[in-house]
Specification:
By secondary structure, the protein is α+β, with helices and mostly antiparallel strands. It folds into three domains: 85 residues, no CATH class; 93 residues, no CATH class; 158 residues, Nucleotidyltransferase, domain 5 (2-Layer Sandwich). The chain is 31% helix and 21% strand. The protein has nine helices and 15 strands. The protein has a five-stranded mixed sheet with strand order 11-10-9-12-13. Strands 1-2-3-4 form a four-stranded antiparallel sheet, with helices on one face. The chain has a four-stranded antiparallel sheet with strand order 5-6-7-8. The longest helix is centred in the last third of the chain and has 25 residues. The chain starts with 28 loop residues before the first helix and ends with a strand.
């Protein structure tokens, strides 16, 4: 070690500087930066969202500014360009910041602005990097992310000697589902074998990558629409051959735009399809409650309660009629969670025919030839 150039001590040339505080290069650097930045935002009039710790809201009269923070990457938007620019100026005076202009790329998400005012979001570059990582840049595309009716057993095939590549690719695919709900079910299936994957499971991962190779231009288009929350909830009863657990799937729309979706295996075995559907309703209601709170923090209020669509009449009856409580005493928590929100009018439950159930793609692995989630239209799909 030696004294830094330009700061040599002529009297003590062999001494070194004692570092009192460092921001960059230490493990606690992100936390220190976040604490410094978030403590400064209230001085500019921002308040922390109760639902999302990375969201800050500034409300001035009829105008609003939203700031989203991820480590040292920041997104700022608002109803007034003048107010947004003043916030950027104030932040620039306190921190060494660079204004990157209009948002086009953020954490692997590519944002394109269409001529009609719509916004298109996809992850094409992230996908290209993922294919390069998997050495499948020149692979042959396939039409579906999984084979029809395919189910995986945990012990079938030969165990991988090094499961690290499998786990790395599956983890990367999970991030890709942020803009690709069409692969959510397939990715959820391969995620269940992270502990001891086999060559059969690795083959399923490669098929997902082959499907993505031919659909790298896919993404989601967001259009201007009304402020109405619509939810499609579904489940696949006892669909997992290893544990006989069901799969929950839901899609949440804000107007015509899908804003949240999930495909996830339930934690316990359901004794009936009604029970599985009811658990899926509880998960969907929980997600909607969180979204409502986020919108409230952003000073956006819904004119009508959210509507939950379900294709199981028994589950709908359980959510609104306390007479059936004795039949599902073992589901007491989920029962009260959904029923209380229905009785208070926070949400409405509504039947939807199975052929119009959008969430099927997240629970049964429907292989879609064409899907337009933005307009809730699904055509020509086969299992």
């Amino acid at each position: 070690m030696k004294q830094p150039q330009g700061f040599e001590d002529a009297i003590h040339p062999s001494h070194v500087c004692k570092l009192l505080k460092s921001l960059y290069g230490l493990k606690q650097a992100p936390r220190a930066w976040n604490a410094k930045f978030t403590s400064y935002l209230p001085t500019l009039g921002f308040t922390l969202s109760h639902s999302d710790p990375s969201l800050f809201v500034k409300h001035t009269g009829i105008d609003i500014v939203l700031l989203l923070l991820y480590v040292d990457d920041i997104i700022i938007t608002g109803s007034s360009s003048t107010l947004v620019q003043s916030v950027i100026t104030d932040l620039g005076e306190a921190f060494d910041m660079k204004d990157m202009g209009k948002l086009t790329f953020f954490l692997g998400l590519e944002i394109s602005y269409l001529s009609n005012g719509d916004i298109f979001v996809n992850q094409a570059k992230y996908l290209r990097d993922l294919l390069k990582k998997a050495t499948m840049v020149e692979c042959k595309p396939c039409s579906t992310p999984a084979k029809p009716y395919q189910q995986f057993l945990k012990d079938e095939g030969v165990s991988l000697q090094d499961p690290t590549p499998y786990r790395s690719l599956v983890g990367a695919l999970q991030y890709l589902t942020f803009t690709r709900p069409d692969i959510a079910y397939a990715v959820n299936s391969v995620c269940q074998f992270m502990t001891a994957p086999t060559d059969i499971h690795f083959g399923a991962v490669k098929r997902i990558l082959r499907y993505l190779k031919g659909t790298s231009h896919y993404g989601i288009t967001y259009t201007s629409s009304d402020m109405q929350l619509l939810v499609y909830s579904d489940s696949d009863w006892a669909g997992d051959p290893n544990t006989r657990c069901s799969t929950t799937g839901y899609v949440v729309y804000l107007g015509n735009n899908p804003i949240s979706w999930q495909s996830k295996k339930q934690t316990s075995v359901s004794r009936s399809s009604t029970e599985a559907e009811y658990k899926a309703l509880a998960h969907s209601a929980s997600e909607v409650s969180w979204i409502q709170q986020v919108l409230k923090d952003m000073h956006l209020f819904l004119a009508t309660p959210p509507i939950l669509h379900c294709d199981n009449l028994s589950a709908l009856a359980l959510s609104s009629n306390p007479v059936f409580h004795s039949r599902i005493k073992h589901l007491d928590t989920d029962f009260h969670f959904v029923r209380e929100r229905v009785q208070r009018g926070d949400i409405h439950v509504q039947y939807v025919p199975t052929q119009e159930q959008v969430a099927d793609v997240l629970t049964k692995g429907l292989h879609i030839v064409k899907i337009e989630l933005g307009s809730k239209e699904m055509e020509a799909f086969t299992r």
